[in-house]
Amino acid sequence: QLQLVESGGGLVQPGGSLRLSCAASGVRLDYYAIGWFRQAPGKEREGVSCISSSGGRTNYLDSVKGRFTISRDNAKNTVTLQMNSLKPEDTAVYYCAVRSIGLCPPASTRVGDMHYWGKGTLVTVSS
């Protein structure tokens, strides 16, 4: 069965960087779009970014454009989220998730679009 494990979270100062990784086991991800989501305390889970099965198309939440970059390595069955210029409002638990088709949603990435989830990794941006 498919399992997703996130790693790379931690405490970082504002303006700093973190690189999150999502490692999959049990199923090849070659045909599936992958998304990153986050959930801050007291807020709804929101889509941060999505990457198509081939890696050819990506999308981002407006508030992270220019700061975050999603990528994937299908040979290693992994997906990453490089986060730069981090802000306190980026503090959240970050989750990776798999969509059972190869395309990302055309507008925004929604929780209901995804079918498999990791357990999350905590990112705290604070001085």
What is the topology?
Blueprint: E1 3-7, E2 10-12, E3 18-25, E4 34-39, E5 46-51, E6 58-60, E7 68-73, E8 78-83, E9 92-98, E10 116-117, E11 121-125
Parallel strand pairs: 2-11
Antiparallel strand pairs: 1-3, 3-8, 4-5, 4-9, 5-6, 7-8, 9-10, 9-11
Describe the structure.
This protein is mainly beta. Helices cover 0% and strands 45% of the residues. It is built from no helices and eleven strands. It has strands at 3-7, 10-12, 18-25, 34-39, 46-51, 58-60, 68-73, 78-83, 92-98, 116-117, 121-125. Strands 2, 4, 5, 6, 9, 10 and 11 form a seven-stranded mixed β-sheet that branches. A hairpin with a 6-residue loop joins strand 5 (46-51) and strand 6 (58-60). It is globular and about 40 Å long. The model has no long low-confidence stretch (mean pLDDT 96).
Shape: globular
Uncertain stretches: none
Number of helices: 0
Tally of extended strands?
11
Helical percentage: under 10%
Rounded average pLDDT: 96
Quote the beta fraction: 35-45%
For the biggest sheet, the summary is: 7 strands, mixed
User: Separation of termini?
Assistant: 40 Å
Q: N-to-C SSE series?
A: EEEEEEEEEEE
Radius of gyration: 13 Å
Name the structural class: mainly beta
Task: Tag the structure with descriptive keywords.
four-stranded antiparallel sheet; 0% helix; 127 residues; 45% strand; mainly beta; seven-stranded mixed sheet; 11 strands
Care to give the gist of this entry?
Helix content is 0%, strand content 45%.
